[in-house]
Design goal:
Butyryl-CoA Dehydrogenase, subunit A, domain 2; Butyryl-CoA Dehydrogenase, subunit A, domain 3; 9% strand; binds flavin-adenine dinucleotide; six-stranded mixed β-sheet; Butyryl-Coa Dehydrogenase, subunit A, domain 1; three-stranded antiparallel β-sheet; binds ligand LGJENVYW
Length: 643
């Protein structure tokens, strides 16, 4: 199962090597992180990033090894944005000449870049950004300016204190005409002493949610006062401005300016399975250690993992972690395919890639953020201790529901794609993830054939149920929309229904990709069978949770919904014997998990007890401040008995 989870034996061995490299290096210690003040915390992150880079250079790590190293260091840092957005943006939007100039500098870390798109006043609405880039033909330069307070760049990671350069998104003005938002490489700080260059005001935006957590990142604020940059620092693959001040658009679609977001959304889906599997690993191991009630004749109490309620909350999350792992694998393939096509100027699959990355980013991050919190509750009171690892994991993870596109805004993008597909059904055969809509007539007509709980153990029955629900919800939205004279007004009015239809479509993708995975050759005794059980758990759990949809569109009867739930209970009993093995298969070191509750050896209580004594409050028996603030209260003489 470890190989199935990792994707291949080579990846398992490689990632295992990187995990151990990090776990055995004292620089990467992270348990004191939530107790550090901001300055100390940030300096320590700089130290870790420098040490990580030294290891990459000294050990000549490959790009793949470096990615695993960054994952196991497990601390958000400016380098994420440098490697994860600044460099990919230049790769995707720069001309050959620009790539030749900037990529070697960035790849050798001679410059440090960030991705400065969001502003104080606008994040989701990219076309609403206010920063301007005005072309000055006399000087052959752009003048970058922040005309209002709300045009201040706000949020970019790595901007606050680390970056020397930023990829700034600004409205292009040429000859007094606006030409939409474009990307510009702007130097922010001196390469000698790191001080801000003239016309640049830059700093950190302040503390964020949770202790430690995302506060290792210097999310920044940035203002420009008529800062001049050479003309060739506008990324010009999509459109160009000539020396003479002529704006020209190439055959490349304008949406490619958003390409970096497509790339990062894809990586976020892959990372969702990592975050959720961590939380599930902690909660599963602890649920086997923890005992409450049920002792007979002085024997041991019941392990909480044996309670059906615990199983019905925990096992769907375990199944989701696997489901997200496999859909992430597929999405990576889809992205690589689109990337190759884009390089050959074939843009035909870009809308599908946008819809899939946006929708799956939204679906998986929402489920993961909710899932981590559920895992905390599954661990009872001890889950609330920082040493459980869950509070920091939650705090660091939840902004994923917002960054790289607010999850609702992204589902509305999926809705546009679905509505368009439905409206074109009469003359255009849908392909890819919307191919099922080509069978819409059958899906509208056929109802569920399930008669017994066992009938649900059939991939065909499951896929058809999810297809019918998604198709019927999409068609219902299409019909409702047709009643509006103005389609945009209709879209705004029906937005909540459209979001639900998008969720149904995205859930269908995840379920289908899990089932497709099971059609591949999966070596190892019992591995495929275990994955089949998890796949059914994932699908039937969703069906149970959203049974209102399946019933409302008239595909299922209440009896069939009940049978699905009966089958789900049986499946939980099948997961139980292998639950610990299924989380051990994630192959996480104790360092990476960062949790006393999730320790591999299960030695939870002695270690919790030991850790309590390490808290700085326990450095002395009598607390600092006792004599000043508590003792006077204890010693006071009160006049009124009521007080
Ligand atoms: C040695 C090696 C070492 C290696 C070490 C490796 C270490 C690291 C590696 C990797 C780490 C990666 C880690 C990443 C960390 C992530 C940290 C998070 C940081 C966060 C960053 C950010 O948040 S950046 C800012 C993100 N902002 C957003 O997402 C904004 C959301 N808004 C939008 O995307 C758009 O504005 C919106 C989609 C809402 C559309 O706007 P709108 O104005 O309505 O539409 P318009 O612009 O007119 O376009 C309409 C048209 O375009 C289509 N479309 C929209 N978006 C896209 C797209 N992205 N791609 C393709 N097409 C798109 C849309 O469908 C419409 O199409 P039509 O209907 O007209 O056909
Ligand atoms: C930790 C973190 C790191 C970040 N890093 C970066 C970075 O490196 N670079 C960068 O450029 N940006 C970064 N961002 C900014 C991030 O991309 C934006 O915050 C995000 O895109 C959401 O935009 P917003 O803040 O404008 O939200 P808003 O759009 O203001 O959302 C507020 C609410 O309005 C709703 N809403 C908005 N529009 C609509 C609509 N059309 N229909 C229905 N509801 C709507 C949303 O659903 C939400 O509930 C980061 C943000 C965070 C939190």
């Amino acid at each position: 199962m470890k190989v199935a989870w990792a994707g291949s034996r080579e990846t398992l061995e490689l990632s295992d090597r990187m995990a151990k490299l990090v776990a055995n290096d004292p620089v990467f210690e992270k348990f004191t992180r939530p107790m550090l003040g901001r300055k100390e915390l940030f300096k320590n992150t700089l130290r870790k990033a420098a040490h990580g880079w030294k290891l990459i250079v000294d050990l000549r790590l490959t790009e793949e090894e470096a990615k695993w190293l960054r994952l196991y260091i497990d601390e958000p840092a400016y380098t994420d944005l440098h490697w994860g957005m600044f460099i990919p943006a230049i790769e995707g939007q720069g001309t050959e000449e620009q790539k030749k100039k900037w990529l070697p500098l960035a790849q050798k870390m001679k410059i440090i870049g960030c991705y400065a798109q969001t502003e104080l006043g606008h994040g989701s609405n990219v076309q609403g950004l206010e920063t301007t880039a005005t072309f000055d033909p006399q000087a052959d330069e752009f003048v970058i300016h922040s005309p209002t307070l709300t045009s201040s760049k706000w949020w970019p990671g790595g901007l606050g204190k680390a970056s020397t350069h930023a990829l700034v998104y600004a409205r292009l003005i040429v000859g007094g005409e606006f030409h939409g938002v474009h990307g510009f490489i702007v130097q922010l700080r001196s390469l000698e002493d790191h001080s801000p260059l003239p016309g640049i005001t830059v700093g950190d935006i302040g503390l964020k949610f949770g202790n430690g957590a995302y506060n290792t990142m210097d999310n920044g604020v940035l203002r420009f006062d008529h800062v001049r940059i050479p003309r060739n620092q506008m990324l010009m693959r999509v459109s160009q401005v000539t020396k003479e001040g002529k704006y020209m658009q190439s055959d490349v679609p304008r949406q490619l300016i958003y390409g970096t977001m497509v790339y990062v959304r894809q990586t976020i889906v892959v990372d969702a399975s990592k975050a959720l599997s961590r939380a599930v690993c902690i909660a599963t191991r602890y649920s086997a250690v923890r005992r409450q009630f049920g002792s007979r004749n002085g024997g041991p109490e019941t392990q909480v993992i044996d309670y059906k309620t615990q199983q019905s909350r925990l096992f769907p999350l375990l199944a989701s972690a696997y489901a997200f792992r496999f859909v992430g694998e597929w999405l990576k393939w889809l992205y690589m395919d689109v990337k190759q096509r884009l390089e050959a100027n074939d843009f035909s699959t870009l809308p599908e890639a946008h819809a899939c990355t946006a929708g799956l980013k939204s679906l998986t991050t929402t489920a993961t953020a909710d899932g981590i919190e559920e895992c905390r509750k599954l661990c009872g009171g001890h889950g609330y201790l920082v040493s459980s690892g869950l509070p920091e994991l939650f705090a660091v993870y939840i902004p994923a529901c917002t960054y790289e596109g607010d999850n609702v805004v992204l589902l509305l993008q999926v809705a546009r794609f679905i509505v368009k597909t439905v409206s074109e059904l009469g003359y255009k055969q849908p392909v890819g993830t919307t191919a099922y809509m080509g069978r819409v007539a059958t899906l509208m007509q056929n109802n569920c054939a399930v008669r017994t709980a066992e009938d649900w153990l059939n991939p065909g029955a499951i896929v058809e149920a999810f297809e019918a629900r998604a198709a019927r919800m999409a068609v219902a939205c299409g019909r409702q929309l047709a009643k509006f004279e103005n389609p945009e007004e209709g879209f705004a009015e029906l937005a909540s229904d459209l979001v639900e239809a998008s969720v149904a479509h995205c859930q269908l993708i995840v379920v289908s990709k899990f089932i497709e995975k099971l059609q591949q050759d999966i070596p190892g005794k019992g591995v495929k069978q275990s994955l089949e059980i998890l796949c059914y758990v994932y699908a039937l759990f969703l069906l149970h949770k959203h049974q209102g949809d399946f019933l409302a569109v008239g595909y299922l009867t209440p009896k069939q919904a009940l049978l699905a739930n009966d089958q789900l209970r049986t499946l939980y009993s099948k997961v139980r014997p292998n639950a610990i093995a299924l989380v051990d298969s994630f192959n996480y070191t104790d360092h990476y998990l960062g949790s006393i509750l999730g320790r591999y050896d299960g030695n939870v209580y002695p270690k919790l007890y030991e850790a309590a004594w390490e808290d700085p409050l326990n450095d002395s028996d009598v607390a600092d401040g006792f004599h000043q603030y508590v003792q006077p209260i204890l010693k006071q003489k009160l006049h009124s008995a009521k007080l």
